[in-house]
Design a protein that fits this description.
The structure holds two protein chains of two kinds.
Chain A: E1 7-12, H1 16-23, H2 25-28, E2 32-37, H3 40-45, E3 52-53, H4 62-79, E4 83-86, H5 90-101, E5 105-109, H6 120-128, E6 131-134, E7 146-147
Parallel strand pairs in A: 1-2, 1-4, 2-3, 4-5, 5-6, 6-7
Helix pairs in contact in A: 4-5, 5-6
Chain B: E1 2-5, H1 13-22, E2 30-33, E3 45-47, H2 52-61, E4 64-68, H3 71-79, E5 84-87, H4 100-108, E6 114-116, H5 123-133, H6 144-155
Parallel strand pairs in B: 1-2, 1-4, 2-3, 4-5, 5-6
Classes of the chains: A alpha/beta, B alpha/beta.
Amino acid sequence: MGEYNKRVLAVASGGGHWDELMLLRPTLQQYQVQYVTTDISLATQHDILTAERLPDCNRNKPLRSLYCGVRAAWLVLKHRPHVVISTGAAPGFMCLVFGRILGARTLWIDSVANGEELSMCGKLSMTIAHQCWVQWEELATGKSSRYFGAVL
Amino acid sequence: MILVTVGTQLGFDRLIEAMDRLAPELGTAVIAQTGKGHYVPQNMEAHEKIEPSRFEPMVKSAEVIVSHAGIGSVLTAARFSKPIVLLPRRASLHEHRNDHQMATVRKLAGRPGILIAQDESELADRIREARALGEAPQTPAPSIQQLHDALAGFIEGRIL
């Protein structure tokens, strides 16, 4: 299969996470990319009309997180991506978990907002995702969190 | 016009209240996106959430952005070459789950067009300095191309 036919699920919550993902869009759109976000109006603004929605959630909202997890699993099953990437936050992490289970290669890019310590999901992704990248060189710890540049 | 934003998710009454108090002295209109806060501003136009399609033209016509230390705000200000004043949320005041915004301002301090108010008492001075700057030309992140190349490498299975 040609590299450009790779199906990529690219997931980011509204706000800064989505802005960071959009800065990576020129590279993502070389592939068969499916965007997923918590706020569809943000996707529309970038003329992305096929984005899928995930409910926002965090670890303080267990029920909503459960619903988000079910939706995330469904989206991964529906789109069968070869690669799942997320710039955060918790909903994106859930897509990585189900992506990994279903055989996709998974990448967590920790937000540039985390300058001195990785996010909770970032730390978890160091063991759960195939790769975890940080956007500040000082946070890279070798193989488990790597630095390949930053959006800011 | 001065545009105040605390993002679209959490409220940040400390910033909104401080800006409401400052608004009459600024000599220009002040418009705020307040998020889910409780404080009701008296001296400035306030909206809980401004739709992205309306927000961007506002950024474009703003003189200065005053914001929580969120990356979305920083990136937006950079895209439109606007100076931005950042007041970080503090976990000890229940303004966020952790102190990552404190880390953000420590990391971004000194970048062109970015001014830091450690607390609300510094806002007036930082806004004055930001207005004196005028345009704050965007300096693209030198390492973003590296990130693009690495991402392509990951997707194509070249970075293992």
